TrEMBL record:
Signal peptide: none annotated. It comes from Euphydryas editha. SUPFAM superfamilies: Chemosensory protein Csp2 (SSF100910). This is Chemosensory protein.
Length: 87
């Protein structure tokens, strides 16, 4: 699967957009549709959570960690569901 390349600036814009981050959270939890970025996040985030994502680039790993950290801080209820599902 080709990785959708994303700049750090694009990531910050996504994290600042409550609707977009909610869509990605719903995608990750299997509660809503996924776009290519959401699919990649849903596929790779569990590997990053476990500490090993061999197919991730260093930039992807950093961006996924940033996204997970953001969700943990700003969406604790959804974060708990993500941990139950993937942890």
């Amino acid at each position: 699967m080709a990785a959708p390349h994303m700049t750090d600036f694009q990531l910050e814009r996504i994290l600042a957009d409550r609707g977009t981050i909610q869509r990605h959270i719903k995608c990750a939890l299997g509660e809503g549709p996924c776009d290519p970025v959401g699919i990649r996040l849903r596929t790779l985030a569990p590997l990053v959570l476990r500490g090993s994502c061999p197919q991730c680039s260093p930039q992807e790993t950093r961006q996924i960690r940033r996204t997970l950290s953001y969700v943990q801080r700003n969406h604790p209820w959804e974060w708990a569901k993500i941990i139950r599902q993937y942890g």
